[in-house]
Amino acid sequence: MASRRIHVFWPTRKIVPVQLPATSATSLDHRFPTVKKQIKEWHGSVSSRKNQEWLILHVIHQDARVQSGTFFTLKGSVLDKIRADFNTDKRERSESYHLSLYINCVDDDTNSCIQLVWSNGANNPAAWAEFMNKLRDGVLSAFEMAVVQREDEVRWSEGQRQMPGWNFCTFFILKESLATSFEGVTLFDDALVQYEELEVSFDQVLKEKNLSWFGTLITPTPAPTDDSAPLLSISKKPYRDLILANNISVFDFRIYLLSRQCELLSKAGRLTEVCTKVGVFLSAFGRRLREVESEIPPYFVESWVYSSALSAVEQCDAWSATADLDAKRPAFNAGKAELLELA
């Protein structure tokens, strides 16, 4: 009997580790205690983590089926031992899937211990389907638990807003992690909601004139490329590091927030809205920069608006190459035309 491990990964961590003990006919019983120790160590490590599902996939060779005599004898030899040792919570975690035309597939919705009988003959596609369903259920369960916990943390943090020591930048990173989780499972609209709510929170901070977590509106000596770098690129600066360090200017923060929103809109196929959003942002924030025009290099605002509009059009064209615009094409072209006119 040998033991192998595979993992189903989330964007930042594995959420459904899978243990694969494999047996032959001669190792069904006498080698189980050795592998049981390995599985127990793995199971203990996995179970200690928050929002973690797990799956044990027991693989046996065809010769084990022959020597065991009957399906029920086979099932009771090792699989029942795994069930007894590791299905200790209310959610029974044992089931048996068989990849052979000669043995039926048995399914139990509450199990997370799976047995595969490997045959050199034709396989039963339904067995793989059941295994993938179980894996999918584990991913969804772990994701749901993680989201619920993070939503609770966000609500708690937001409830502390009026308390001394509350930090908008820390709150932003916390809530953004919820957005990236939704983005990871292609729930782009749900991810956008998080950024829209963050934008509302930031506007409230501006109204309260409480910018202690930020630097200035814009640094008096902007970086040489600040007026010409691609507007919607989130890699041109270490934005998240600056936010975590409470050392980001309002200029950089607003650009990062806009870039993330536009990236999600593009993934959702809403490119026309990207053009509109960029146009509104350049007009509004351009006016804000002109209020401090004496503190920044000459013609910085004009150069920034011009290059930002052109780079946004270029980025939208790149995104549209893989988008299905069809009837939306005229509106998309009109949105780009407005940006070019703004430039």
TrEMBL record:
<dbReference type="InterPro" id="IPR045126">
    <property type="entry name" value="TRAPPC10/Trs130"/>
</dbReference>
<feature type="domain" description="TRAPPC10/Trs130 N-terminal">
    <location>
        <begin position="34"/>
        <end position="275"/>
    </location>
</feature>
<protein>
    <recommendedName>
        <fullName>TRAPPC10/Trs130 N-terminal domain-containing protein</fullName>
    </recommendedName>
</protein>
<dbReference type="Pfam" id="PF23036">
    <property type="entry name" value="TRAPPC10_1st"/>
</dbReference>
<dbReference type="InterPro" id="IPR056913">
    <property type="entry name" value="TRAPPC10/Trs130_N"/>
</dbReference>
<dbReference type="GO" id="GO:1990071">
    <property type="term" value="C:TRAPPII protein complex"/>
</dbReference>
<dbReference type="GO" id="GO:0034498">
    <property type="term" value="P:early endosome to Golgi transport"/>
</dbReference>
<dbReference type="GO" id="GO:0006891">
    <property type="term" value="P:intra-Golgi vesicle-mediated transport"/>
</dbReference>
<dbReference type="GO" id="GO:0005829">
    <property type="term" value="C:cytosol"/>
</dbReference>
